[in-house]
Design goal:
It contains no helices and 18 strands. It has strands at residues 18-19, 40-42, 89-95, 100-106, 109-115, 119-124, 136-148, 151-164, 174-177, 181-186, 196-204, 210-217, 220-222, 225-227, 235-236, 241-243, 258-263, 268-271. By secondary structure, it is mainly beta.
Length: 272
């Protein structure tokens, strides 16, 4: 975490921030890929405070992030994250550890993206592919977990993760429903000019188990899914995940969408 600077001061190059996007599928064969967590620990997370910004399991359009006490969990390895230009980010303030940035109801519990460290909130000094001038930025060590009752199951950790949003509104996971599973997609960074980068999770309807999903294409397994910033977004068509690829400068658009079959036993979407 970089120290808070004056809003008139640009973050030093030594505090290079990481941004998980830009054609960003990291191979599981590369050092630093995500290792799913199967460990479940008793929750040490308290309920959100009753302040006006406190979140609930079903956030409204006006809802903003809330702070709660984070759970202590075992460490996981992180995906390789490309570097973002630090000179575009100005730090403004620090939020307490436990700030919730995304949440959605899932089965008997909920999926949450929560800061496991203090969170640095800033803004973009100038417009770029990542967002417009003045839009809020967030950086922290984040955990994505499944919370049910008094149990928190850590699914993924994103250390020193930086992203930009158009507002402080708490995100929701996108849900894609299949016959045997509910699939949840979360793309924290809302634009890049090169596609959205999403993390995927599944809930097995047979046993209620929740776990991360990977994507296999051409013999390579990726931890994230990259898709177009414009609709149509990933959807279930005939029990297959249909994904439209992003179109960026200097790249040729794909004539057909990618199609994936869901393999719950292998915890994979496998491209046809």
């Amino acid at each position: 975490m970089s120290p808070i600077r004056s809003t008139a001061t640009t973050l030093a190059a030594g505090t290079v921030l990481s941004l998980s996007l830009l054609l960003g599928c990291s191979s599981q064969g590369v050092s630093g890929t995500v290792t799913p967590a199967a460990e479940t620990t008793p929750s040490a997370i308290a309920s959100a405070s009753a302040s006006p910004s406190a979140t609930t399991a079903s956030p409204t359009a006006s809802e903003t992030a809330s702070a709660v006490v984070p759970a202590t969990t075992a460490g996981l390895s992180s995906p390789v994250q490309p570097e973002a230009p630090a000179n575009l980010v100005i730090a403004d303030s620090v939020n307490a550890a436990g700030t919730v940035r995304a949440r959605s109801a899932a089965g008997q519990g909920e999926l949450v993206m929560i800061a496991s460290s203090s969170e640095e909130r800033g803004h973009l000094e100038a417009s770029s592919n990542y967002g417009l001038e003045g839009e809020p930025t967030y950086q922290a060590d984040y955990s994505i977990m499944y919370r049910a009752g008094d149990q928190d199951q850590v699914l993924l950790k994103l250390p020193a993760f930086l992203f930009v949003r158009p507002s402080d509104q708490v995100l929701e996971f996108d849900t894609v429903r299949f016959k045997d599973a509910e699939v949840y997609l979360l793309a924290p960074q809302y634009k890049s000019g090169h596609g959205l980068v999403a993390y995927a999770f599944a809930m097995d309807k047979a046993n209620g188990e929740v776990f991360p999903l990977s994507f296999k294409q051409g013999g390579i397994v990726h931890d994230t899914l990259v898709y177009s910033e414009l609709p149509p977004f990933p959807a279930n068509q005939n029990e297959q995940l249909v994904v439209h690829s992003p179109e960026g400068a200097g790249t040729d658009p794909e004539l057909k969408p990618r199609v994936y079959d869901l393999d719950l036993e292998k915890r994979l979407f496998i491209a046809r």
